[in-house]
Specification:
Strand content: 15-25%
CATH architecture of the largest domain: Distorted Sandwich
Helix content: 10-25%
CATH class of the largest domain: Mainly Beta
Number of strands: 16
Number of domains: 2
Low-confidence stretches: 38-68, 181-202
Largest sheet: 10 strands, antiparallel
Number of helices: 7
Length: about 350
């Protein structure tokens, strides 16, 4: 009986194995099982009430809720709009639910500029400005530059971990241009200033002994002199100090209007110049020996405006240096954020 039992077990085992092989082989040629509910045709859902993404002119955009700024904060892509006959920046801004100045800023258009049929315009997903990341900048520096919280910028541009690439374009929601226009820096040689007749001996505006020029830098602001740093921005020092052995010319950090050009003590600044660049941005140049501009003058980026000195409250064996400040809406900011390249 025992051999017979073993024979039966062996026979069953062989048959079961063969059956498994056959089932596996058949399964290779049959499609997988799909439930009927999963294979049913999609329902006709109104896209206007859903958050689907559609491709339009090569960009991803949300088909719904684009009329609300808040719901667009997750989409950092802009769209390219081709101007049609009869359209203007104002009409386009109403259609895109953007402010006209947002379109002007993104496309570097002046307030008086008009658009023509066929012209391509970049439309941002939210009101704000575009910022091109420069070497050495990080997310927090950019946030401080525009006074916009870093998490908002990170969310808008889908930034993970705060890592940025030099040359990367970021959308800064709610931001405004630092200056009205940032022209490409050029080497500028300056001749005699137009002002030659001072009103009093204490406010003499000097003529430069020669035509000064400075190597252009490509930060938001031009570095104001060909110098090295001796003191940085801190809790008790609201600017940066720059020095050149024996002194050197000081240059306008950006185009603007001189709103202050005073000789004297001036609260420790000494002979001081302030330039208004628009949008609440003002730069200050202190401790000058000579001033080459007067109040009301219009200056260009890189123009020689003074000669470095040691007037006012100055310490050290020589004390000859430039104290440079950046004010934004009356608040003193770290100038390195603006002059770094």
């Amino acid at each position: 009986m025992r051999p017979l039992t073993l024979s039966v077990h062996s026979w069953l085992s062989i048959r079961i194995r063969m059956l498994c092989v056959v089932i596996f082989a058949i399964s290779l040629f049959l499609p997988p099982y799909v439930p009927e509910s999963a294979s049913a045709p999609p329902l006709d859902i109104d896209a206007a009430t859903q958050g689907y993404l559609l491709a339009e002119e090569g960009f991803l955009m949300k088909t719904s809720s684009l009329t609300e700024q808040g719901t667009r904060s997750a989409f950092s892509q802009g769209i390219i709009h081709t101007v049609e006959s009869g359209e203007s920046i104002t009409s386009i801004s109403k259609t895109a639910y953007l402010k006209p100045e947002t379109i002007r800023w993104a496309n570097k258009l002046s307030d008086s500029a008009s658009v023509k049929p066929g012209q391509k315009l970049l439309l941002l997903p939210v009101d704000g400005v575009l910022h091109t990341v420069k070497r050495g900048q990080n997310l927090q520096l950019i946030a401080d530059l525009y006074n916009v919280p870093a998490p908002i910028i990170a969310s808008q541009n889908d930034i993970k971990g705060g890592y940025l690439l030099s040359g990367q374009d970021l959308i800064v929601p709610g931001g405004k241009p630092i200056v009205e226009a940032i022209p490409k820096p050029v080497k500028i040689a300056i001749g005699k200033p137009s002002f030659t007749l001072p009103t009093t001996p204490n406010t003499v505006t000097k003529t430069p002994d020669k035509n000064f020029a400075i190597e252009p830098t490509y930060g938001i602001l031009q570095t104001p002199c060909d110098c090295f740093y001796t003191q940085y921005f801190g809790s008790s020092h609201f600017g940066i100090d720059l020095q050149h052995r024996g002194g050197s010319p000081n240059f306008a950090a950006e185009a603007g209007t001189v709103i202050r050009a005073d000789y004297g003590w001036n609260g420790g600044y000494g002979n001081v110049i302030e330039i208004d660049h628009g949008n609440g941005l003002v730069t200050l140049y202190a401790h000058n020996k000579e001033l080459y501009v007067k109040k009301g003058d219009t200056v260009t980026r890189g123009q020689a405006i003074a000669f470095m000195g040691n007037t006012g409250r100055v310490h050290g064996p020589t004390g000859i240096h430039l104290h440079f400040e950046v004010h934004v809406n009356g608040v003193k900011k770290n100038p390195l954020v603006y002059v770094q390249q």
